[in-house]
Structure formats: structure tokens, C-alpha cells
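INFO  loader      accepted 1 record
INFO  loader      residues=164
INFO  predictor   begin
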Amino acid sequence: MTPLQPPPLSLLDKYYGDEFHPLYTTTVTASGGEAVHGRASGVVRSADGELDLALRLPPELGGPGGGTNPEQLFAAGYAACFHGALMLLATRAGVTVPDATVSVTVSFGRDPVDGLYSLRADVEIRLPGVDAQTAGELVRSTERFCPYAKLTRQGMTSIVALRT
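INFO  predictor   done
INFO  writer      dumping C-alpha cells
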């Protein structure tokens, strides 16, 4: 078995095209399950079969728990992406941080703007052994580079299609 390797630094190269240029695309489908409600009792499955998870409402939202939920999945994606981007930038800068961690806390709650719902993400980065100035520069660069950080700051293009 080939040992796992980090992605190439060429991922840091800028793109100068006129349109969005996809490098990887995946599809995950949610279905409703027993309660016919994706969030409460559903299942999420990726087209390639690598992701297959039961969804359950957490007790804080009146559910039984016992499965994952959209907030955990978003937090996992955000933390993994930010960590990966941070490590690429640190490698390019010649900074070694083998014990770096990124924790993302996602909160689902009421939005005072419209009275409906919103998400909030708090990101905590630990870079043991890195001086404060270098760490700050790496984090600021990662905030500009990481697609999840950009998404939470700028929003994203979303095309909703109804298929009947």
C-alpha cells in the first residue's frame, strides 16, 4: 500500500480563467427515512458510496441523537479544508507544524434579521511552537485561500433545480 501524501503545492497556483473551473465534483443525496424527514431520520449517501451516514436530530433540537447531523458534517468539512489549506501554506512558507489542529464549532440557531434560522461557525486554530506573528500571517492567508472560509464570508453560487 502506498503511504498517504499531502497534495502538491501546485494547488496553491492561481487560476486566471474567465469561468469557474471545477477540479473535483461530488454528489451526496439525502433521503427521508422513517420519519420521512432528512434531518430527523434520513440518510446521506455519496454517489461513489464512500459516504453513507444516518442523520438524526440531536437531543437539543428535540431528537433522539444517535446519528450525525448537517451541522457536524459542515463543521467536519470546514475543519478539514481549513487544516489542509493551512498546511499547504505553511509548507510553502517553510513552517513545520506537525501538531496543528483546526476545530470548527457550528451553531444552528435563530436569526434576529428575519426570525428564521441561521448558522454560525467559530474556528479555532492551534499552531504549537509557531510564533504569534507567523501564525497570524498563516491564518490570515488561509482565510483568503480556504474555500470554506470564502464560502462563509462571501456566500456561494447555488443552482436549485426541481425534478419531478
